[in-house]
């Protein structure tokens, strides 16, 4: 995902390494080169600005001037600031005191929500939980069936309206699913919601209606890391329209430039909690800012 950015940064640092001491001009040039590398990776401008300002301030301070190996010290600063941009600490799922814990998934169509429902379901089941997946995407033909296929692969029950039952209201389905979870002793409910190709008011209103019906403990905004700068705009629209407590980056296995991953935390103020890295249900993990920063810096 970050190959180009990693290569660019490696080049910036290798030209620093040959220097015993770093002049102000060296630091300016380095900051400029890092800035270009980030912009080319599609990182949002406000994030780039904040990042570069922090690097410059720290790199011109005494921690670099007094360092035995100034280049190494600059790399250390970039690493620490990258971890900060990615959210610092790993943010874990918050479970409800009184089960079931309700996790709602939101995002554009194609972002990877249904796949994520299966991944999260499998991951939670392996951790000893008894999750229930809920098909509250009644918009797209086949969405219910797709979730049922995913649920079967994950070994997790799927709650969906019976065909011909006349229940066509996703808000009603979501509400009923919580009752079903209580009756059947499920401790986690994962609600898959409808997404559109673009942001629209009807979609937001429906997602907000589901949110109000189920009072989620976590609302996860799922975003395709390959959509570049659009990720930030989409994240802002979902933040304002539905609100969310965490972000899931999907398709991190792609070869796009990765700017979304580096922007979304800073822009929305909400932590990246999980990363999806492929089509298989196992291609999924908790997001660790420090590991991601290490990967970027190679
Ligand atoms: P939804 O519309 O948000 O529910 O998205 P889906 O879960 O249906 O995913 C859309 C497409 O992206 C499907 O073809 C998935 O197999 C694929 N997909 C989902 N997550 C990933 C991922 O992490 N990596 C890759 N390469 N493909 C993914």
From TrEMBL:
<feature type="domain" description="SRP54-type proteins GTP-binding">
    <location>
        <begin position="271"/>
        <end position="284"/>
    </location>
</feature>
<comment type="function">
    <text>Involved in targeting and insertion of nascent membrane proteins into the cytoplasmic membrane. Binds to the hydrophobic signal sequence of the ribosome-nascent chain (RNC) as it emerges from the ribosomes. The SRP-RNC complex is then targeted to the cytoplasmic membrane where it interacts with the SRP receptor FtsY.</text>
</comment>
<keyword id="KW-0687">Ribonucleoprotein</keyword>
<feature type="binding site">
    <location>
        <begin position="192"/>
        <end position="196"/>
    </location>
    <ligand>
        <name>GTP</name>
    </ligand>
</feature>
<protein>
    <recommendedName>
        <fullName>Signal recognition particle protein</fullName>
        <ecNumber>3.6.5.4</ecNumber>
    </recommendedName>
</protein>
<feature type="binding site">
    <location>
        <begin position="107"/>
        <end position="114"/>
    </location>
    <ligand>
        <name>GTP</name>
    </ligand>
</feature>
<keyword id="KW-0547">Nucleotide-binding</keyword>
<feature type="binding site">
    <location>
        <begin position="250"/>
        <end position="253"/>
    </location>
    <ligand>
        <name>GTP</name>
    </ligand>
</feature>
<keyword id="KW-0963">Cytoplasm</keyword>
<keyword id="KW-0342">GTP-binding</keyword>
<comment type="subunit">
    <text>Part of the signal recognition particle protein translocation system, which is composed of SRP and FtsY.</text>
</comment>
<keyword id="KW-0733">Signal recognition particle</keyword>
<comment type="similarity">
    <text>Belongs to the GTP-binding SRP family. SRP54 subfamily.</text>
</comment>
<keyword id="KW-0378">Hydrolase</keyword>
<keyword id="KW-0694">RNA-binding</keyword>
């Amino acid at each position: 995902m970050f190959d180009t950015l990693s290569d660019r940064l490696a080049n910036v640092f290798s030209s620093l390494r040959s220097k015993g001491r770093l002049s102000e001009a060296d630091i300016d040039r380095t900051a400029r080169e890092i800035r270009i590398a980030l912009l080319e990776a599609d990182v949002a401008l406000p994030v780039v600005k904040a990042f570069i300002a922090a690097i410059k301030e720290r790199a011109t301070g005494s921690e670099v001037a007094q360092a035995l190996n100034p280049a190494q010290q600059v790399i250390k600063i970039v690493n620490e600031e990258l971890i900060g941009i990615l959210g610092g600490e790993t943010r874990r799922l918050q479970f409800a005191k009184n089960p079931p814990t309700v996790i709602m998934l939101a995002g554009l169509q194609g972002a990877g929500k249904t796949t994520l429902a299966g991944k999260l379901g499998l991951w939670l089941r392996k951790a000893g939980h008894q999750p229930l997946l809920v098909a509250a995407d009644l918009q797209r033909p086949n969405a219910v069936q797709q979730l049922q296929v995913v649920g079967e692969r994950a070994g997790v029950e799927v709650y969906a309206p019976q065909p011909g039952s006349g229940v066509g209201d996703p808000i009603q389905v979501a509400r009923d699913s919580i009752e079903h979870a209580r009756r059947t002793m499920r401790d986690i409910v994962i609600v898959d919601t409808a997404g559109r190709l673009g942001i629209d008011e009807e979609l937001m209103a429906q997602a907000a209606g589901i949110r109000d019906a189920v009072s989620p403990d976590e609302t996860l905004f799922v975003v395709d890391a390959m959509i570049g700068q659009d990720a930030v705009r989409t994240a802002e629209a979902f933040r304002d329209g539905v609100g969310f407590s965490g972000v899931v980056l999907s398709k991190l296995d792609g070869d796009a430039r990765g700017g979304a991953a580096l922007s979304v935390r800073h822009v929305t103020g909400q932590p990246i909690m999980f990363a999806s890295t492929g089509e298989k249900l196992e291609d999924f993990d908790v997001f660790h800012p420090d590991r991601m920063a290490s990967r970027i810096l190679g």
